[in-house]
Amino acid sequence: MKHLFTLLLLFSCAITYAQKTGSVSGRVIQSKDNKPIDYASIAIKNLADSTTIGAMNTSEDGVFSFRGLKPGSYRLYAAFLGLKNSTKDFVISAEKPEVNIGDLILEGGVIDLQTVEIKADIPPIVVKQDTLEFNANSFKVVENAVVEDLLKKLPGVEVDKAGTIKAQGETITKIRVDGKEFFSNDPLLATKNLPADMIDKIQIIDELSDQAQFTGIDDGSRTKIINITTRKDKKNGYFGNTTAGYGSDKRYDVNANINHFNQDRKLSVIAQFNNVNKQNFGGGLGGGNGGGNGGRGGITETNAAGFNFNDTYADQTEISLNYFVNKSDNLILRNSVTQNLLGDVTTIFNNDQTNNADRLNHRLNFIVDTKLDSLTSLRIQPNLSYTNNGGLNSSIYTRDYNTYTINGTQNLSNNNTSPSISNNILFRRKFMKRGRTLSLNLSTNINNNDADNYNRNDEARVEGGVTTQKITDQLNDQESESINQNTRLVYTEPLDKTLSLEFNYQNGYNHNKSDRFTYDFNPATLQYDLLDTTFSNAYENTILINTAGFSFNKNGKKYNWNIGMAVQNTDRTNNNITRGFILKQSVFNYTPSAMFRYNFSNSKRFVVNYRGTTNQPTIQQLQPIPNNTNTQNIPVGNPDLKPEFNNNLRLAFNTFTVGKNRSLFINVNLTQTSNKIANSSSLIANGPDQGKLAILPVNVNGVYAGSVNSSISLPLMTGNKLNFHINVGGNYNRDVNFTNSLKNITNSWVLSNGYRLVSNLDRLDLTAGINGSVNRATYSIQPNSNTRFYTFSPNISVSYLFPGEIRWAIDADYNQNTGRGEAFDTHFTLVNSYLSKQFFKNRGTFKAAVNDLLNENQGISRTANNNTIRDERYNVLQRYFMFSFTYSLNRMGGKNRISEKGEGRNRGGEGFGGGRARN
Q1: Is residue 289 pLDDT above 50, yes or no?
Q2: Nearest to 153 by CA among 177, 131, 175, 137
C-alpha cells in the first residue's frame, strides 16, 4: 500500500505540473518558392538550463504545434535534408501561453542531414519511415548496465523475466549491431552481454524481406528487428567489461565481454560461468526464474563462451562469422497434479519428480555477401550445430481412478546426439529496366538424431485390496534422419512507376526417417537384446511440395498494397517399412495473400495483412508406433493425418507523437485453422497399460484463435524525465479435441493489464509497475471442471547514486496467484538489493548484493488446455549473498578513456551480484 500511495502521489504531482503549460506553433517553408516543407524536423531547447524539451516533424502542409511547455524562454530549431537550419527564440508566459511564430524560412545549403541533429541537443526519439529511433543518451540507466536495461526504458518495448523482447506487440527475433549480424538469431547474446554505454541509437525496424529489400517492392512480409548503432568513440579500439563474483552457498558468477572495433571490422568475445541461473543466451536448459512465471525452474550451472566477427571489404563484400559453445547442468525438483477430463470420468495424476539434465551445444554460423557485378549479388550462409543431451529422470507417482489406484516409480535415463548442417544460397540479379529482377534461393537442412533411453518402470495396481505388479525394464534405441531441400525462384516485372507484377515458383522436398526399436532386459545375458515388436518400428515419410503463384504490388506515396494467389500441390508418401505398408496422399491448396499499408504521416500508419499457409504433420505424429516411456500417456502416430491450413489475419495501428514522446500501438491477430492436428484421448480400460491415456493425433475443424495487444506511452514530465506506460492485452482460443470418443470444445481466455512508471533522471533510477491477468477455461463435456485463476504482481525498482560514486539499489516484486486450489495458491515477495562503489577513476565497481532477501521465492505454474489442467511446483533459486568486482575496459584509439562524471550513463556490466535477473 505504501508503494501504491507513492505512485499515486507521483502521478498527481505530474498531472498538476502538466496543467500550467503553453504551446508554440508555426510553419516551415522554403526560401526558394515559399512552399511548405513536409516532415521538416523541429526541436525545442529550454534556454534556462540548455535541455532539449522534445522534437517533432511538420505535417504535409509544413505546420507544427508543440504543447506542454511551462512558462519560460525557449529556442526552436528547424532543419531539413539539404537546407540550412533556422532558429527562433520565444517566451511562454501566464499572460501569453500560446505563441505562433509564423513562418520559419529554410534557405538552400549543403548540409547533409537525415534527422535534426543539433549539437548536444539530439531529440530522444526520431521517426524515419519504417524505423523508430531512440537516442540512447536520452534514457538514463545505472552504471554497469547492459543493452537489456536500456530496452526496458523505451516506450512500446517490453522485456520479460526470461529476456524475451516485444516491441509494439511483436516479438524480436534478431538484433544487429551497426546493421551487421550479431550471433545470428539469438537476441539474448546481444541484450544480456553488450554494455549499454556503447550505444548511440536503438532502432526498432519493420524490416522488409530479403526479396523486397532487393527489388524495392514491398511484398507485405516484414519482421520486427532491433539495430544497435554504436557511438563514434566506440568504433575504433577496445571496450567491454569483466565481472567476477562469489557468494554464500558456494554461488559464483563470472562473465566477460570484450570488443575490438575498427570501423567496419568488429570482433566480440563473450564468456560466462555461473551457478545462479543466469543464461545470457538462447537455447539453453534455462534455470527459470520462479516467481510464479511458469518457467522451467530448477537450479542451473552454466559454462559458455563464443565470438562474433564482422568485416566489410573494399569491394563491399561482407563477412560474418560466429561460434558459440555452452554447457548447462540443470536440477529440477518438481511436484505436479494433472487432471484429465474424460467426459463423465476424471483421472488425477500426482507426480513427484527429480530431473537431472545436462546439455552441450556447439553452433557455428557463417555469412558471405558479395557483389559479382553492379547488378548481381550472391549470399551464402552455411550453419553447423552439434548438441548432446543427457539426463536422469526419477519419478514417484500415483494415478487415481474411481475403482482402483496405480502407484509407480520410474527411472528414465537418456542420452542423445543431434548434429545438423544447413546452407542457404541467395542469388539476385537486377536488369537495366528499373524494377525488373530475378532471384533464386536454395536452402538445405540436414538433421540427425541418435538417442538411447533406458526405462525402468515399476507399477502396482491396487483394486479391492488386491495388488497386481508390473515391471518394465527396456532400452529404447531411436535414430532419425531429416533432409529438407527448398528452391524458390522469383521474377518481378514493373508495369508502371508504382505497379509491378511478381511471378514465383517454389519446390520443396522433405525426407524423414525414424527407426525406433525397443529391447527388453534379458536376465540370461544381462543385456537388452529381446526385441519388443509392439514398441518397435521403422518408418519413412517423403513430402514433395510444388507451389506456383503471382502477386501484384502497388507502392504509392502514402500507401502500398499487395495481393497474390498461389496454387500448392503436396504429394506425401508414408512408408511403414516394418509392416510393408505404403500410404500415398495428394493435396491441393490455394494460398492467397493480401496486404494493405497506409501511412497517415511519417509517424502514424495502419496495416492489414492476410496470409494463407499450410503446416505439415511431423514424423512423430505420423509414425504408428506407441511410446511407453511416459508414465501417464501412450502416444501413437496417425499416418492418415492431413496437413493443416491456416488463415491468418493481422491488423496493426501505431502512432507516435514526436517531440512529446506519446505513442499508441495496437495489434490484432486472428487465425482460423482447417484440419487442425489435435489429440484424441481415451482411457485404456484393460491390459498392461490399464489406466493410462491412449493419445492419437487426428484432424479437427472449428479451431480459432485471436489476440489483441496494445501499448500506450505518456510523458508525465517534460525532457523525457518521467514516462508512464500502459499495456492491455487479451487472447482467445477455441480448441477442439476428443476424449473417450466425445467431442470436447475448450474455450480459453486470457486478459492482461500492466502499468509502468519509468524515470530518466541523472542520479535516481526508478521503475514501478503493476501487472495482472485473468485466465479462464471452459470445457463443453465437463463444465463442472471449468477454471478461472488470477495473477497479480506489483513491482518497484529504485536506485540512487550518492556522492562518492556509491549506489544503493533495491527492487521488490510481489507475486500473488489465486484460483488454483489451496495447494497451489501462493503469495510471496521477492526482494533483491545491492550496494556498489566505483574505484579506479570509475573503471572498477565493487558490489555487495543479496538475492531474495526475504527468502520467499517460489516456483509455481498452471496450464489449462483441451481436456487437461496441470498444476506444478518446482524448486527455484532462493536467498544468497554475493560480492563481485567489475572492471570496464575502454581503450579507444590506443588510449585509455576515463568516464567523466555525468557521462557514465551506462558503463557495461550487470546488476545484482553481476546481474539483475530475478531468480
Answers
A1: no
A2: 137
